[in-house]
Amino acid sequence: MSAGQQLDKSALPQHLGIIMDGNGRWAKKRGLPRSAGHTAGANNFRTITRYCSRIGIPYLTVYAFSTENWRRPAEEVGALMRLFKQYLEEALRDFMDENIRVIFIGDTSAFSPELRELIARVERESSGKTGMVLNIAMNYGGRAELVHAMRLLAEDVQAGRLSPEAIDEDAISARLYTAGQPDPDLVIRPSGEHRTSNFLLWQSAYAEYVVMDILWPDFKTSDLDRALLEYASRNRRFGGV
């Protein structure tokens, strides 16, 4: 029995974050190039995304490429860019049959003109979807996002549109990439690593974390079910008693 059958929708997170980690280690364990791990991870991303949509999770944010990932070998970065292009082309061709709105969060200006055009097309052509919102974090970092928000605030203050006294948590949240969306209730990190890795730093202040010792390409819908059941069993106090 799936978590979707065991839990009513009120027990599911409104916003789920997933740090898709472990592709390189998955490939290394099998004597394969790291690019093979990223390909396997990308295939699993499609499976898990469709499953989240089917069981009724309203918002899903996946960590696809961080601001720090540019430091990886040029060959690996190139393979990732090719995978992104393949996904975007597939999204325009096949994924649009799903009732999923796709939004890219992060500084996409660093990508090639071709990738930026594909990103814009996917966002534009999925904008009318009424089902799950899928945020894909590409060239994303939580600190960089906060810097971006602070610059927007400074511009508004400088232009006289906002007084310094009016800067509060809501003003900051309204200038994040996820503006208008609920904060994540649950963040899942496969791969067994116990760190946030600069993912949704502001938004996940009160999120529940579930760390699972499973590399992302091996992460199955049944593993997601287990994480959702664990989340549903927790008592979320938000700093209260």
TrEMBL record:
Superkingdom classification of source: Bacteria
Catalytic residues (UniProt): 21, 69 (proton acceptor)
CDD domains: Cis_IPPS (cd00475)
Positions contributing to Mg(2+) binding: 21, 208
Cofactor(s) needed for function: Mg(2+)
Pfam family of the protein (one): Prenyltransf
Keyword Metal-binding: yes
Protein residues bound to substrate: 22-26, 34, 38, 66-68, 70, 72, 189, 195-197
SUPFAM superfamilies (alphabetical): Undecaprenyl diphosphate synthase
EC number(s) on file: 2.5.1.-
Entry similarity comment: Belongs to the UPP synthase family.
Function summary: Catalyzes the condensation of isopentenyl diphosphate (IPP) with allylic pyrophosphates generating different type of terpenoids.
PANTHER family with a match to the protein in the record: DEHYDRODOLICHYL DIPHOSPHATE SYNTHASE 2, DEHYDRODOLICHYL DIPHOSPHATE SYNTHASE FAMILY MEMBER
NCBIfam families to which the protein is assigned, alphabetical: PRK14830.1 (NF011405), uppS (TIGR00055)
Record text on subunit structure and interactions: Homodimer.
Protein name: Isoprenyl transferase
Organism encoding this protein: Candidatus Gallacutalibacter pullicola
